[in-house]
Amino acid sequence: MAHRFDSVQEVREGLRSVNYLADDGIAGVVFLADRLGKPVLVEGPAGTGKTQLAKSVAEMTGARLIRLQCYEGLDESKALYEWNYKKQLLRIQADRNSGSWSEVNDDIFGDEFLLTRPLLEAITADEPVVLLIDEVDRVEVETEALLLEILSEYQVSIPELGTITAKQVPLVFLTSNNTRELSEALKRRCLFLHVDYPQMEREKEIVVTKVEGITEMLADQVARIVRSIRQLDLKKSPSVSETLDWARTLVLLGLDTIEAEQAKETLHILLKYQSDITKAAKELAVD
Amino acid sequence: MLDLLSGFITELRNAGLPVSLTENLDAMEAIQHIPLEDREAFKYALGATLVKNNAHWRSFETVFEVYFSLRGPEYKIDGTESDLDDFFREMQEQMDQMRQGPGEGSGGAMEQLTAEELMSILMSALMNGDQAMMRALARQAVQRFAGMEPGRPVGGTYYLYRTLRNLDLDGMLEKLMEQSRQQVGGDLTSLEERLERDEYQDRIEKFKQEVEAEIRRRLVADRGAEAMAKTLRKPLPEDVEFMHASRDEMQNLKKALQPLTRKLAARLARKRRHGRKGPLDFRNTVRHSLAYGGVPAEPKFKYPRPAKPELVVVADISGSVAAFARFTLMLVYAISNQFSKVRAFVFIDGIDEVTDYFKKTEDISEAIHRINTEADVVWVDGHSDYGHAFEVFWDRWGKEIGPKSTVILLGDARNNYHASQSWVVREMSHKARHVYWLNPEPRSYWNTGDSIVGEYGTFTDGVFECRNLRQLEAFVEMLA
């Protein structure tokens, strides 16, 4: 099978061209995922660009993004496929007088009556796709088993139809916020990628690329303040998306440099708990 | 190469990482797609295929460093040549080209510098954040100050200490701050000062890591990877013993605690919601049958809602078990919404209630800090006296223990040969729903010396060994 990328460098530059700044680890794992034909399990704190990674990869390769949002109670009929009962019923009623039983029976379990859900859609697609299984830690352990077949063999077995195998191997990303331990079986089938808060230099770059009209200097200050805040012992450290929100706010306020006073007043964009805000304000002003 | 990798994987397994056969095969396949001379890519390829839990990443890094760190003639402590793996040699050359680019000119000259000159170069390197220079300096510093001797059986930390003592990095930080103040001309605002300090601290931290890596490299060259891996092997955060954790390990434990509580809370909430189908709820079924013209088409069931337990934690916070008590309290309070009420008492030989400390603040670590400084727990001499503490507890708060309460007693039950007053525990177990005892000591130490956990234990519903986070987590899950 043809590979999508030639080198890690290519992945990296490709992602950069769609405004996603990947570090070596991220680019390397995406490259390997393509080469080995394995899904990537992306884990990390909220708001560090896990979902965005899948979107950006789709954009970069010009593939269609198919997204399965996981939640508690997700089941086969929402994730894989479902028979279109109403249509089947209509078909039977229309045929009431003519045709033999076996004819109808063969008929109503055909492609025509199959409703594809994201997973099945991803492997039956003709064009290249990127499959994103978002927040996989939200489904119950038992439901995880649904994913196993598709993740390792890229196929779906439907009792009435047989096994449907993928026409092309899609790039698969699973994201997890780590609210529970995923099962060994699932982990084993995936490449693991932990996306943490970025290094200061990278965060600064991200701010510069994503926020319009920000000066280099302000971006630098923003990144440095955020790094300092992350070192504190907080309930919830500011995420990258919150950093971006904050930077945008500062630009809207027309600031070129941040004084302690302004930082303090806008802290609530960065931090979402009152106790965190008080703590950070204290640390930044006094120390 | 294959041998090297399988040795590496064996060592990972020894360090406690679960590496399955398929993952092993994946790793083998992955590295075929990666240019071997790219060390970072190589590391990530192995990491992505072998390590599936972020908490294990540190252990992986250590083992990786040891197995694939750069071994070469210039890292030899003395001049003797030993056989080198071809793979390493190849890697070595690649890395040398990369690293010696900027640092080369100074590399040779550095030998002749005096210590003062070395320090001033280091300072300017830190000032400018010059990575290549810092790396070269780290090498030089280790060579000069660590005084490493081949075959000497001391750990890497000893050499690290010797090197850092000579460099005086704390003083360096102050000097750097002073200099940047001068650069701006006048005083920095408090915010700027804070940021500058963080920046320099970060750089110094990086320099320290360079020094550490350098020492490790030399040790590996001296002793071989297998031996080094064994000495460097660290337990995973969830296996670190509370009673013997170093300061660093404590920090890691604290970090590990937060995601753990999140997971625990999610799991408990899920447990409460699921798997509870009670008997048929007749009234509800009839009410819903109206919609179907009186046909009970949709049976309704009663969902039993078991009461959340009321928790009373009584913890020994004397020196030896303080860390354990702290972690248990933190864990319990982090998931306190799983309990209808949590009350906390701490004692050494006197006892004090500390529930209020937790109520007043959202910040658990602040509450813990207040416990350490404000709680009135010393009665006579500040040595554990379980008997007296329990007696006072029963006197003052005993009547508040009821059939809903679950009492958890924390401590090693080393009573310094005081009277045990174990009748208190017996009375407690009569009144309370459950009484549990958590002991941070290994089971084999129980009832040795002045430990009388057996005597207390007979009156409780169970004594649990709680030496590490893993065991503590298992207990809390059972409880809620």
How would you summarize what this structure contains?
By secondary structure, chain A is α/β, with parallel strands linked by helices. Helices cover 51% and strands 14% of the residues of chain A.
Characterization of the model:
The N and C termini of chain A lie far apart (58 Å). Helices cover 51% and strands 14% of the residues of chain A. With 287 residues, chain A is of the alpha/beta class. In chain A, a hairpin with a 3-residue loop joins strand 6 and strand 7 (162-165). Chain A has helices at 8-17, 24-36, 50-61, 76-79, 85-94, 101-108, 118-124, 141-153, 184-188, 200-210, 216-231, 240-252, 260-265, 267-270, 274-286; strands at residues 40-43, 64-69, 81-83, 114-116, 129-134, 155-158, 162-165, 171-176, 191-194. Chain A is elongated, with a radius of gyration of 24 Å. In chain A, helix 10 packs across helix 11 (216-231) and helix 10 (200-210) packs across helix 12. Chain A is built from 15 helices and 9 strands. The model of chain A has no long low-confidence stretch (mean pLDDT 85). Chain A has 2 domains: 8-72 and 127-194, 3-Layer(aba) Sandwich (Rossmann fold); 200-286. By secondary structure, chain B is an alpha/beta fold. Among the domains of chain B are: 105-223, no CATH class; 307-479, von Willebrand factor, type A domain (Rossmann fold, 3-Layer(aba) Sandwich). Chain B is 57% helix and 7% strand. In chain B, strand 5 (434-439), helix 19 and strand 6 form a beta-alpha-beta unit. The longest helix of chain B is centred in the middle third of the chain and has 34 residues, at 190-223. The model of chain B is unreliable at 71-88 and 98-108 (pLDDT under 50). The interface between A and B is large, with 50 and 42 residues.
Q: Which properties best describe this structure?
A:
heterodimer, A: 287 residues, 15 helices, 9 strands, B: alpha/beta, 7% strand
CATH topology of the largest domain in chain A: Rossmann fold
What's the total count of β strands of chain A?
Answer: 9
- As laid out across the biggest beta sheet of chain A, the strand order is 2-5-8-1-9
Q: Radius of gyration of chain B in whole Å, from Cα?
A: 29 Å
Report the sheet with the most strands of chain B, covering strand number, pairing sense and barrel closure: 6 strands, mixed
Oligomer: heterodimer
Average residue-wise pLDDT of chain B: 76
Number of domains of chain A: 2
Termini of chain A, distance in Å? 58 Å
Which structural class best describes the helix and strand composition of chain B? alpha/beta
Tell me the overall shape of chain B.
globular
Total helix count of chain A? 15
Mean pLDDT of chain A: 85
Name of the CATH superfamily of the largest domain in chain A: P-loop containing nucleotide triphosphate hydrolases
Biggest chain pair interface: A-B, 50 and 42 residues
CATH topology-level fold name of the domain at 307-479 in chain B: Rossmann fold
